[in-house]
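Intended use. Records like the one below are meant for learning the mapping from a protein sequence to its folded structure. Do not use them to infer anything beyond what is encoded.
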Amino acid sequence: MSRKIGILGGTGPEGSGLAYRWARAGEEIVIGSRDTERAEKTAAELRARIGNAARISGADNASVVGQCDVVVLTVPFSGQAALLKQLKNSWKAETVVIDTTVPLAATVGGAATRMLGVWQGSAAEQARELLPPHVALAAAFQNLGAELLAKDTAVDCDILVCSDDEDAKRIACELAEKIPGARALNGGKLENARIVESITALLVGINIRYKVHSAGIRFTGLPTR
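Structure written out for the chain above:
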């Protein structure tokens, strides 16, 4: 299926990591940023790493939203609401948004291991409130670390996908399984993103205590496909 995937916040570690994995899998990617030059620079760096045949370009956030069929939100929680409000009138009809946001905060001098309270219940539910009704939303990839995505090796992680829209859930699952080693799991309704987002704080703490960067989650006892 021909589709164009935009990644808002694509110049950051998580966004560029997802862009790298999906471009390697043959997807067409548009890196989004407030700064067009920065987006184009990141796109050029990824093309150089994968090969110039890779379909990766860069653009400002509004342009990304206007041209892409799937848009992945990889900005920090502190910037999520402002960005979605700014883009309110830019969305195409039937766009699918995949939100990866986790509302984490750091203690003074520490790592980001503390969950922030979100009025709507989760970052994903906040995104749903700020997106137009004609945009479908899924929450996914919150538990997959940027350092793993930046490597060439297979990941060892299940990807929980939560959504109230079956098409959005299906597309997020398809993209999850484009990443070698990842397995997509149906996480149920969008409100379950509250649980999935909180797992990230636990994983950050585990990574710190065990001095690793690769802790992920696996669910056992499920039927093989």
